[in-house]
Design brief:
Layout: H1 5-24, H2 28-52, E1 67-69, E2 72-74, H3 77-98, H4 103-118, H5 132-151
Antiparallel strand pairs: 1-2
Helix pairs in contact: 1-2, 2-3, 2-4, 3-4, 4-5
Length: 155
């Protein structure tokens, strides 16, 4: 599996949702906000599947929670992702108690930060010291932040 497969699947889901909402003449933002918690849960479960499938190769470590991959103790990157998605899901519920209609922005920003940080523990090709997933995370972060600022009319 590609290190960007979840990013691509979410982009496709959002494009399909956008087309659907335009055809049905309903609010894309409301629809996306309904999907956001489910996407976070999908992230949790999907990354647990990656963990059990031994998919993301973490960098070597001596930390007590290291897992054995390729006969070496390594960072359990997939568990980092699952935990971060759980934290993002909790944040969606906490934040939306005080501010409505920002679930998708919370997910986008949370996902981007998670992906950017966790990728430092992944072995893989780098471009300008960043993985492709980190570059995509930067783009997602900027897009989600700008969309939020526009939504809040702060831009």
């Amino acid at each position: 599996p590609s290190s960007t497969s979840i990013s691509c699947s979410w982009v496709i889901a959002l494009i399909a949702s956008y087309i659907y909402t335009k055809k049905k003449k309903i609010s894309f933002l409301e629809h996306a906000n309904i999907l956001a918690p489910g996407l976070a849960v999908a992230g949790i479960v999907g990354r647990l599947g990656c963990f059990f499938g031994d998919i993301h190769l973490g960098k070597p470590t001596t930390l007590p929670w290291a897992i054995i991959q390729e006969s070496q103790l390594r960072h359990p990157v997939s568990l980092y992702y699952s935990i971060a998605f759980l934290i993002t899901l909790i944040l969606i519920y906490i934040i939306t108690r005080y501010k409505k209609n920002i679930e998708i922005f919370t997910l986008g920003i949370g996902y981007a930060l998670t992906r950017f940080i966790a990728e430092f523990f992944v072995i893989g090709p780098r471009y300008l010291s960043l993985t492709l997933a980190q570059i995509i995370a930067i783009i997602v972060f900027i897009f989600a932040l700008l969309a939020y600022l526009k939504h809040e009319k702060l831009m």
